[in-house]
Structure to design on (515 residues):
């Protein structure tokens, strides 16, 4: 009897240890290995971060769970002490915590309990301006609410929500709001232009005059940078040069700009995330993976204001000079609601994008389903992309789009005249500034209620090359239109159209096989 009781006691201890180990995260190395083994290319092992069994509760450092007082110092102190001790888990319990930017450090897992909301203050004084990159170009921005630099073994896990308070930062167009919403938003103060665009202050409008490339101002006076601070909207999660990263379980929402922006990172895992931005949010991307390698994005939900799941690698000459591609990426079992594109490559792809697999994705109401975009001046190569088992419904533009004449606007926002001006311009000789898209397989795709099923629009000096479309069934108002494409294979593709032809091949399309 004693041996039996001893066995039960030991079993309880073992089970207790096993249940204790994953309580701060549920993803296992076996989960990640199973996903990477399914890749259509040689995918390196993606290492899950591991943390010592030590815990630090931010309440013990003076954090205020009512949200009345700032908890920045308390949360940061807990993280600092944790990393200095060799690592562990910093716990943010249930409650409301108002804070400024938080910096993760090596060997620290930040864990949020259920019913925990971390609200980032919109007080500009809390956000220092620093040198960084945005939209693929070196520039200055305000410090990101959640940031890490050259850290290893870091994680944000749990059940809580991180809210970036982005409505205080982002410009807002009146035509995107109901009258009652617009009236309520004006109570924040700010400035409204003659074009009915709300800005947080006049300095944010001033910064526009210094922008030579969309949202990146060119300023040499440090004093002026401080004056236009409100324009320098941060991305909410910004990790640079980090290794072994896990984001799991939490909600990331209402960012001032992009939601998640890992850059030059290795071994990145995003799993079971809920990523939300208002549909009208300017530059409200879901995740922008830039110049990273060995990435897994799994079982995530996106409902955002711009591209949802996006691969990037720098823009134009700065991106080519950096020369770091985004490579070895697996995207599986994700759902996208609002967004300019469900899965997107570009347009900042000057360092290259290669070895990417997308599978088991669902897109509901995204502006475009699968979106590949770039333009002259970028350079770079997008290649070895494998997409399968994607379903999409209620797509107001293209289900599948290759646009090498991208003009910086969302799908459907550009006029025919603007597009025609670029397409009719004299084609230059191919050079290092010419982007290339090649060796792409897209199969087992179903779509319902789509405006145009497929549109390929390559460059005459560098056509879209070697694309295979296989086992597709799409119902659309318009069919598939192919331009400037070389090496196109179409196998068992059924497009049901309300008007026109199911397939249209322009004279610029070469080497086509249709089965």
């Amino acid at each position: 009897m004693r041996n039996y009781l001893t066995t039960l006691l030991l079993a309880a201890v073992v089970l207790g240890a096993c249940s204790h180990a994953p309580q701060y995260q549920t993803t296992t190395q076996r989960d990640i290995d199973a996903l990477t083994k399914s890749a259509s290319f040689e995918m390196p092992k993606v290492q899950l971060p591991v943390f010592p069994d030590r815990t630090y509760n931010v309440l013990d450092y003076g954090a205020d769970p009512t949200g009345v007082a700032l908890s920045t110092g308390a949360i940061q102190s807990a993280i600092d002490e944790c990393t200095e001790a060799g690592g562990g888990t910093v716990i943010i319990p249930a409650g409301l915590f108002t804070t400024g930017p938080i910096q993760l450090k090596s060997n620290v897992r930040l864990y949020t309990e259920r019913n925990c909301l971390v609200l980032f203050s919109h007080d500009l004084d809390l956000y220092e301006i620093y040198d960084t990159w945005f939209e693929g170009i070196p520039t200055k921005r305000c410090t990101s609410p959640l940031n890490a630099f050259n850290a290893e073994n870091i994680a944000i896990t749990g059940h809580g929500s991180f809210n970036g308070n982005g409505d205080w930062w982002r410009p807002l167009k009146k035509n995107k709001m109901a009258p009652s919403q617009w009236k309520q938003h004006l109570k924040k103060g700010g400035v409204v232009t003659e074009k009915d665009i709300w800005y947080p202050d006049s300095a944010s409008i001033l910064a526009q005059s210094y922008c030579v490339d969309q949202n990146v101002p060119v300023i040499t006076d440090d004093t002026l940078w401080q004056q236009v601070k409100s324009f320098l909207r941060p991305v909410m999660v910004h990790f640079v040069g980090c290794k072994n990263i896990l984001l799991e379980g939490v909600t990331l929402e209402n960012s001032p700009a992009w939601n998640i922006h890992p850059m030059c990172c290795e071994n990145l895992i995003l799993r079971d995330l809920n990523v939300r931005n208002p549909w009208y949010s300017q530059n409200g991307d879901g995740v922008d993976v830039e110049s990273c390698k060995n990435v897994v994005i799994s079982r995530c939900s996106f409902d955002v204001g711009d591209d949802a799941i996006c691969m990037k690698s720098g823009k134009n000459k700065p991106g080519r000079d950096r020369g770091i591609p985004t490579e070895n990426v697996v995207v599986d079992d994700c759902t996208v609601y609002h967004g300019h594109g469900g899965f997107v490559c570009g347009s900042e792809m000057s360092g290259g994008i290669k070895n990417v697999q997308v599978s088991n994705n669902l897109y509901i109401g995204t502006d475009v389903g699968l979106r590949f975009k770039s333009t002259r001046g970028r350079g770079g190569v997008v290649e070895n992309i494998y997409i399968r088992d994607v379903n999409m419904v209620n797509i107001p533009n293209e289900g599948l789009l290759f646009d090498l004449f991208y003009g910086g606007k969302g799908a459907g926002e550009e006029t025919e005249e603007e597009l025609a001006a670029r397409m009719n311009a004299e084609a230059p000789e191919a050079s290092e500034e010419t982007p290339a898209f090649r060796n792409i397989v897209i199969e087992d795709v179903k779509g319902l209620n789509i405006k145009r099923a497929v549109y390929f629009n390559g460059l005459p000096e560098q056509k879209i090359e070697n694309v295979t479309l296989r086992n597709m069934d799409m119902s659309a108002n318009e069919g598939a239109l192919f331009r400037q494409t070389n090496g196109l294979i179409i196998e068992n593709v059924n497009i049901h159209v309300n008007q026109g032809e199911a397939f249209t091949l322009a004279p610029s399309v070469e080497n086509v096989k249709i089965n």
Confidence is low (pLDDT under 50) at residues 1-22. The chain is about 15% helix and 45% strand.
